[in-house]
Amino acid sequence: xxxxxxxxxxxxxxxxxxxxxxxxxxxxxxxxxxxxxxxxxxxxxxxxxxxxxxxxxxxxxxxxxxxxxxxxxxxxxxxxxxxxxxxxxxxxxxxxxxxxxxxxxxxxxxxxxxxxxxxxxxxxxxxxxxxxxxxxxxxxxxxxxxxxxxxxxxxxxxxxxxxxxxxxxxxxxxxxxxxxxxxxxxxxxxxxxxxxxxxxxxxxxxxxxxxxxxxxxxxxxxxxxxxxxxxxxxxxxxxxxxxxxxxxxxxxxxxxxx
Length: 258
Fold this sequence. Notes:
Blueprint: E1 5-7, H1 14-17, H2 30-41, E2 46-52, E3 56-65, E4 73-74, E5 79-86, H3 97-111, E6 116-122, H4 131-135, E7 139-144, E8 148-154, E9 163-164, E10 179-184, H5 190-205, E11 210-214, H6 217-221, E12 230-234, E13 237-240, H7 246-256
Parallel strand pairs: 5-6, 10-11
Antiparallel strand pairs: 1-2, 2-3, 3-5, 4-9, 6-8, 7-8, 10-12, 12-13
């Protein structure tokens, strides 16, 4: 096992260590994510980083008090994990670092007298799956289509469980017609993806998409997609639940438009 440190950067030093695998301010999404983080620190956000002298940042966990989470979840009273990842290089995988980061979050949650820790997991892309949390004593509190699970570790078994919010009514309301692209700076990957998808929508399909950018946790918690900070809707139907490439978008739309 390689020697590592767990860093707790503040708003002024976070850019030094990179975010979500991005290390360069010239990379699309990097500056947007840094600005988003600086605002969220005011709400109690923490990002802790697995750091090595040899290879730099090799993992991270991002969490925030549940009242301010950017998922359509009611997790009031809990600490909420947005993201967890370890191993930009494969030699850092499978060494227990993810569990160390989860333990850091739980320690902060206990110190802040939270009811526990909650997280959304899935079997698909762009979210950690449930196995690492089940291994660390988490239970399933709620489920949402197609493959999302809301997991929780309660410090007191009598605490009410968090749950997914049902925002499906928006699909037949303000998103009932046309192509809508939804994103937030919480996920830096969405900047490049959305720019390319907007261009493809116009050039390939003659569609003028509506771009919606969440600016607050309240907006994200009212998202009609469980991922919260990204989604593509077409005529009231969710056609992408997580960040996708332009090629994937074109394949989906080719089947939707007949």
